[in-house]
Amino acid sequence: APACFLNCQVQAAMNSSVDPFVDLSECMFGNNCSQRGAVDGICRVDDSSGQQNITSMEQVEGKWWVTRGVNKNYDNMPCQYNRYMYDAHRAGGTWVNYVTWLDEFQAPQPGQEGGVIIGSTPTVSMPHPGVVMHNYEELGQMEPWVIISKPHPDYLLMLWCGENAALEYAGGIVLSRKSKEYEDMPAWIEEVFRQRIQDFGLDYDKDTRVTNNSWCRPDPDDLTTHELEASPDENLTTHQPETSQVTVAEEDHRTYPPDISQVAASAAPEQLTLITLISTTVLLA
Q1: Which residues of the chain fall below pLDDT 50?
Q2: Which residues have a Cβ under 8 Å from the Cβ of 171 and sit 6 or more positions away?
Q3: How far apart are CA 211 and CA 70, in angstroms?
């Protein structure tokens, strides 16, 4: 399964070094010892596909749940949590995405309800408007995640592309800073996403699926809830954005009349805390 290959790759990088895994993969697939997997998803975006008024990482900073996705092998893995933040210590100062998700291919420890959370921390940059380039240095991979719609500060629609030694793959995700539950997203935002994704040859209702995050921790970084020993990294900082009134016309190139009573027009992100244990067996609610 494609997702299993990804999880094995990430586990190798987290537990020791990914180099032996990469070397073996390149040997197997590069020398035709094993056939590469079928193309898993069509890459539908390029450098010019991003929303043109999104030009800095500060505009996407914060904690984002993946609540809906295109590629069932990746985008619908439970408990996907993206934390876009500035790391003042890494590489002399750089933006990162500390992303974690549930590894459904690992059984939880005996007596524990839940599963194993794994993750990666690629460096990120914005070389073109709306294009969030993810550099997985430990995996030797680059992935463009392209914001095609941001109608409100707390909601994003992204399409992405990727490739590794085993296969080419692509997908898309709906992200929310407000809730882990897709159903909590206002209907007018869903309609904006439904209309926008059609421009890329996708049917929102037929080609995307809701991610089941119902039993994930409300805040995976809540150390009290997790009962983990971890210390905050002072080098990871939160940049406070301007708290100005944001309308759909300002945030999205499409204009759609929002019901402002349903959603607050701006939100100050909560302070971000990076747990130092990326791969840990955790108890999930």
Answers
A1: 111-112, 223-285
A2: 41, 69, 70, 71, 74, 75, 159, 160
A3: 10
